[in-house]
Structure prediction request, 386 residues.
Amino acid sequence: MNNDRLSYILNQLGEEDNPYGAVSPPIYQTSIFCFDSFAEFRAATKNEVKSSIYTRGNNPTVMLAEQKIASLEGAERSKLLSSGASAISHGIMAFIKSGDHIVCVKDCYSWASNMLEKYLPRFGVTHTYVDGTDTQKIIDAIRPETKLIYLESPTSLTFTLQDLPAIAAEAKKRGIKTITDSTWATPLYCNPIKLGVDLVLHSGSKYLGGSSDIVAGVISGSTEDINLIQRQEFMQFGTVPDPFMSWLLLRGLRTLHVRLKAHYESTLKIADFLEKHPTVESVTYPMLPSHPQHDLAKKLFSGGSGLFSFRLKTNRYSDIVRFIDELKLFRRAVSWGGYESLVYANAAAYYEGDDIPADRLSLIRLHIGLENSEDLIEDLERALSK
Ligand SMILES: *Cc1c(COP(=O)(O)O)cnc(C)c1O
Prediction:
């Protein structure tokens, strides 16, 4: 997307009607909307997916954020939701019924796998996990009752990619819906809809908000699919985005391109530093030439965000604990996408002495924030040398 178009979307689109010339859009912090006449009231209730009647359905602040994201994404419509988890559950629930089967990429986000493993079996919905790096394996897992292929490219701990256009084309031939979690790449670095995927979702709690101060989700696709999600799941489960949260998300969107550029530049430097460090076994970042799917990454993404993982050359739990505790600038936390650098060790999912899979014990995930990259490298160097 060229810069003029991007600036237009982020700063002007949907903001034409602006009383008082306020540069920042108003927050419509209201639950209900009133109508001047019976006829207007009736017209609104006859077109519930478009009208602001009650904030569980629509709200102008929410709709402004939706309009901008849809435009960035190249989608007909977006629906903002109260969390990324609700984007996952709505996107799945909208297109399946009892007896259906889902093909899902291995190592997907934990609440997506929880949905498949713990929630959907209650309704007789089955699934198969597939190594998404091999498109043929995804095709081979398709059954007559497969209704949905669930993707996440890259996966957010192991950073494996799927060939989105190839998978989408195969699914389309068979009338199967495709949905992908694109939180890592954001709508700036990848547009799965343009690659043929039916629905794309993001956790807005990450880069879209960008300040680790909101929880939000968004799902985008055709008007038909998003309207269906709105009527069926969104209105029913009430996963309402709060107007103030939506406004914070809008504020975050305005600086997304600047933040991402900084995350990307810093991440390349730090990933390169780690890759050369004698205590590091390997670094997994799609935008590094060492990534096994780097060519595909260059095809799918016009840039990279600030999240990647690496492995330490150790099989001792205590080494991991020591390294993590030594870090000063990297805060120990889940999530990512804010201005601050974070560290998450997969070992934290286990106790020392547990039977930890060898490829998981030394797996460490970093989020590179907006701090000075030299300072972050110094912090890592000090902790690694202990
Ligand atoms: C955080 C995250 C989610 C869930 O989003 P929430 O806003 O926390 O509900 C989904 N997918 C990925 C890849 C995430 O990192």
User: Anything to note?
Assistant: The first strand starts at residue 77 and ends at 81. The radius of gyration is 22 Å. The chain has a mean pLDDT of 96. Residues 83-85, 109, 156, 181, 183, 203, 205-206, 215, 217, 335 surround pyridoxal-5'-phosphate (CB under 6 Å).
